[in-house]
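Section 5.1 Outputs to date
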Amino acid sequence: MAGQFEVTTEIDRPIEEVFAYLADGENDPRFSPRVQEMTKVTEGPTAVGTVYRSTVKDAGVRTRREFRITEFEPPTTIRWTETSENLVTAEEGGYDLESTGEGTTRVRLFNSLTGHGVGKMIAGVALNAARKDAEDFGRRIKAAVESA
């Protein structure tokens, strides 16, 4: 395993509103510039077992990714795992939400990245890039949720 990156941000919206926004994976392109498209492929509302497919661009390379929701506890917890086969995958990721007062929410995002095959050689580079972008990523999540 390469390791984990995380970021915590404060959002000026109630926890239920923030949770609903983040639970809809199709919102990801609004705050993650690497995500070019995201589609929910299972029917019904997001829940444990829901699958999302995305196209992402990292370091100029486009890949297709598939994620499955593994834990879903409104309004505080969302977990996923990447089920696609790529050189570097998010073995586990998630959001932890906490109400911090009237209409404000603290959000912690994390992803644990793992390299596979030759991806083991580049997983550290991917992790360092994610860590370097983490604070900006948090600001983009905040801006996207607050403008929704």
